[in-house]
Design a protein that fits this description.
about 130 residues, alpha+beta, Glutaredoxin, globular
Length: about 130
């Protein structure tokens, strides 16, 4: 996949509260299936993969959305049985945002209140940029 591909990372280490169950792999499979069903936009624009830990242990299961030149989002309290539609809706929204920036009030469903972090896109400062600023 190219650098333009949007990525969704799902924690595979998170455990459901009070259980040894790790729903990350189940969430990955359900999300991949739902994204394929949401044609024509998502299948080619998103890559879903597992990641060992995103330090959202107190709010399992955690999911992150990332793309080059866009803000990155980390969401917690995601349930593979209840939240697939919301995750796909945000994928569509995120894909359409030029810089990935959106307020909590415009995010779908429970993602309005389960955001753990929004990280601005990295700015790469070159020597030429520094010289112009001087």
């Amino acid at each position: 996949m190219s650098d333009d591909t949007h990525k969704i990372f799902v924690c595979t280490t998170c455990r459901q509260k009070g259980s040894d169950c790790r729903p990350g792999y189940e969430l990955i499979a359900k999300l991949q299936e739902a994204l394929k069903a949401a044609e024509p936009f998502v299948a080619d624009d998103f890559e879903v993969s597992g990641i060992a830990c995103m330090a959202g242990c107190e709010r399992p299961c955690t999911v992150a959305y990332r793309a080059s030149g866009k803000a990155t989002y980390l969401f917690g309290d995601i349930d593979p049985d209840e939240d697939i539609e919301v995750l796909v809706a945000f994928a569509d929204q995120y894909r359409q945002l030029e810089d990935g920036w959106c307020s909590s009030t415009t995010r779908p469903g429970k993602l309005r209140r389960t955001t753990l972090a929004r990280v601005p896109a990295a700015l790469i400062v070159t020597e030429a940029d520094t010289a112009r600023a001087s």
